[in-house]
Structure formats: C-alpha cells, structure tokens
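My hope is that you will study the record closing this message with an eye to the fold:
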Amino acid sequence: MSKRRKILFTILGFLLSTVFAIAILELLLRSFYPQEILYPRWAFSPQYCSTVYPDVRMVHERPGRWRFVYTTNALRYRGAALSPSNTYALPNIVVLGDSYTFGAGVNDGEEYASVLERELAGSSRVINLGIGGWGLTQEIRRYHDFGALYRPTTVILQFSANDPRDNLKCAITEIRDGRFQFRDSGEGIYRVKEWLSRSWIQKSQLYNLFRDRIYRLMESRVVEKERATLDRGRNSSAESAEERVYVELLRHFAEDLHGSGVGLVFLSVNGQLDGFPEIAAEVRRLQEEGLLRYIDAADWLKGESNYSSPEGHLWGAKAHRILGERLAELLRPGIS
C-alpha cells in the first residue's frame, strides 16, 4: 500500500470515527439528558437585533419531555395577522413584551393576548408584538415603527426581570432633545445568530449542550461594553445604570402615549418588578400621575397552583388563560 493511500485511509478512518462518536453522543443526550431545541431560532434584524421569521412554525421542544409550536404570520408576530389600515372597524389593543408575551411555553392560541382577543370578541382586536429576548428599547421602537399604525386605544407593556439588562444588550433606542431616536445594531453576536438560526445544527443535542453557555459569554461582553459607555464619567453601580436607562425610556414612552390619548397598562411578571427599586418607584409615580395602570401578575394568580410551563416560564397555559380573562375584565369597552 502506497504512503498516499495510507494517509487517505487514516483520514477517512478518523472522520468515520468522529461521525460515529458524535452520533453516539447525540443518541445518549437525547435519551438520558435531552437538550432544549428551538427551530428555527430568531432572525437577525438591524432594527431590533433579533426578531422572528415571517410565516414559520417554530418548534420548541425537549425531546421526550415537552413540545410547543409557535406559528408566526406574514407581519412577523404571533397570532392572526391584522393588516394596518387608515380606519378600523374595532378598537385595537397593542401588546408589547418579551417571551412571556410572545408565549414561550404555550401552544398557539394559548398566549394571554390570544385569550384576551377571544374574551373581547366583537369589541376589540389584539395585536401581540411580543418577541422573546426583547427589552424596552426594542419594544418602543417596534411600537413606533409598526404598532402605532394600528392607532391603539391601549398598549399593554409586560415587564420581566431581564428587561433592564436586555436594554443594554440591544441599545437601539435613546432619548435626544426630548424625542426618541433609533439606531440600527451591528453587533456581531446577532449576525452569528442569523447565520446559525435556520441551520440544521440547531437540532443537534451536542450543539445545544454548549450553545447557551457560549451565547451568554458573548452577550455579557456586549452588555459590559454598553454599560461602560453609559457609566463613563459617572460613579454608579451596574444595577443603577440598567435601571436608569429603563426609567428614562419608560417615563418618556408613558408621556408619549398619554399625549396621543393611548392608555398604558404595565404588567409585571410575578413580583419581578420588586427587584428593581428605582424602576418600581417610577412605575408608582407614573400611576399616581395617571400615566399608566400597574398590575403585578402575582396578584391575579394568587391562590392558584400548577400554572407554570414545563418549558420553564412561570406562565403556562393556565396562567395565560387567567391573565387574558382578567385583562379582558379590565379593558372591555364600557369598563372604567
């Protein structure tokens, strides 16, 4: 056997062994330690850092444990699409938020926005613009880019504990000269996500075993860079930087909506606002000024049990149903 042929067989043997080892690891992980899979994942967007693909079925599962399907429409949000118009037969309610509003961990039609629309059938339409991983920077821009086209009577803004940090992760909205200014993001972390989001690798158990750890590391670098920019020349803690940005954005957004005659409902995931004293104090001030109505989901879920999702979010189908029904009681036309 020639030297060249020996080298070739050695390379082929190594490749086959590697493929075999990967296949065995994939089977072992799937059988004994299944990893969470979402396919396709989020699309890259310079305007929002990440968003959803239009007209897709996103399958979210931990093989053998749980499985959920999220269907998006042509306008890149979950639920039935309502085309923007210059007039509407019914009042519109626009919902903004992150994965809790998008409905991670519940199937199509179980998200609280869908429950709310069914409860208000014939009296209002509900447009759910929530996207997983979004902070207030993205939610405000999405509203002004698109949500405002629906001329809503009410905006529901959902808060969760990761929102203040997410604002630094995707700093696309700021206030200049008393106005919102938007800028696109060119962060490499999101371009990597775009490249991989519809790749077959997203279905790999081995890839998903390490994916979140690597992503969190990349994300932390983006956040620290933005935090350093915000705190330059200031003597402030990391927490105050995040809260300061959120407070400034929320105040301006609430005043902006109020000036346009749009009501604002601020909905917090179970007690999570309490972990941010500066933001909580501002929410209370805005409520006293009549610029928003604050609701802690914990108050509406008090006494209930087994309402979380097996996927990991605190709100499963039962919680979404309760929240949708209670929001309908609050927002039904004719109810003050």
In short: The mean pLDDT is 90. The two ends are 89 Å apart (CA to CA). The first strand starts at residue 37 and ends at 39. The CA atoms of residues 187 and 222 lie 8 Å apart.
